[in-house]
Amino acid sequence: MKNIIYPNYNCCILNTIATVMKYYGLPCEYKVLPELEAALAKKYKTIVLMVFDGMGIDALEKNLKSTDFLNQHIKSELTSVVPSTTTAAMTAYYAGKSPLEHGWLGWSLYFKEYGRYIDTFINTDSHTGEKLELPHAGHELMPYAHILDQIEQVTHHQTKAYMVEPAYIDYKGKNQKIGVEDAKGFFEEVEKLCQTNEEKFIFAYWTDPDKTMHGTGCYSEETKQKLQEINDLLASLSKTLEDTLIIVSADHGLIDVENKTYLNEYPQLTDCFLMPPFIEGRLMSFFIREDLRDTFKQRFNELFSDDFILLTRQEALQKQLFGPGEPHKKTLDFIGDYIACATGRKLFDYMPLTKTKKFEFTATHAGLTREEMLVPLILVESK
Q: Helices in 133-220 by DSSP H: which ranges?
C-alpha cells in the first residue's frame, strides 16, 4: 500500500504563517497551530521564521541522528501544500494564501496573455530558456502583499521586518533584504539582526538541502553534510540569543526518482493533447481534446497508474487539492481537464521542438508521497 499524503489545510505550512499572521493582528481564515500559538504568546522581542528548502521529515529522519538538534526540537509534523514545490509553497508563506488563492501553482505555467510557457519564479521561457523582457508574468498577473509588508503595516512599523535569503533572488517586498552567499553567512546575518534592540520579525529562507538533493539524491553524503551543517549552525546560534523564538520548517521534502519519462515519446497520449502539459514533472496539468477525454484517461492509466493518480478538474477542485478559499482566476486557467499527481518514483517531462536541452534530477518533488509532503514544525526558544 502506497503511503500517499494529501494536504491537510488545517495542519500544513500555510497554518504556520496563519499563526504568525494572527499573532500580529492580520486577518487570516486558516486555523492556527496550537504549539506555535503557545510559543508566540510568550511575546518574544524577536521572532524568526527559517524555511529550509526541501528539508522534509524524511530527510531529517534518515540523514541525522535522533539526538541531533533539529530532530530534538521537532514539535509536530505538517503537510506541504499541493503541488509540494517551492513556487506554490513559498508563495503560500509569502502571501498567507493557498495555491488555489494565490495562483503560483508551479515552476512552469502557460500564460495565455503572453502565449508562452513561463518559468514563473525566474520569468524565463520554459521551452527555450530565454530571459523574457516582458513584465514579470507572475507579479503582473498574480500580485500579492508580501507577509513582511503586511506585518510592518499592521503594526504601524512598530515591528521591523527583514528578509534574509540568497543574494541572487529577486525580492519583491518593500522591506530590507539581506542577501547571503552560503549557509554560514545566512546564520551570521540572522544572528546580527537578532542582536538589535528593536522588536522584529525575520523571514529567513535558504535553498539547501533542496539544491544538493536535486543533484546528488536524498541520502547522499553531500546531503548528509548539508543537513549536518544546518543542524550545527542552528544549535550554535541558539546559544547566542536572548528573548528570541526561532520557527524552523520547510516548503516540501524530496524523493529519489527514476530518469525522466518524456511524454512526447507517447503518441497515443500526445494525439489527445490540445497543448503541451505543464506545471511540474510530478504534478502535471493536461488539456485534452473534448472527443478524446475518456480515451486519454484509459490510455494514461494503462501506462502510468502505478505511479500517478489521475484526477479530473472537478475532482481536484472538489478535493480542495490546491487548497480552500476563493480561486484566483489564473488558477482556473492553469488547471486542465486532468491533473496527474505522482505517487511513485516517475518524473514526467515534455520536449517540444523548441526545447533541446535534457537534464536529469536524482531527487525532486511536487508529488503526494510522504517523502515530499511531510515537513517539520521546529521551535527553538531562547529566553
A: 137-141, 147-154, 183-194, 210-216
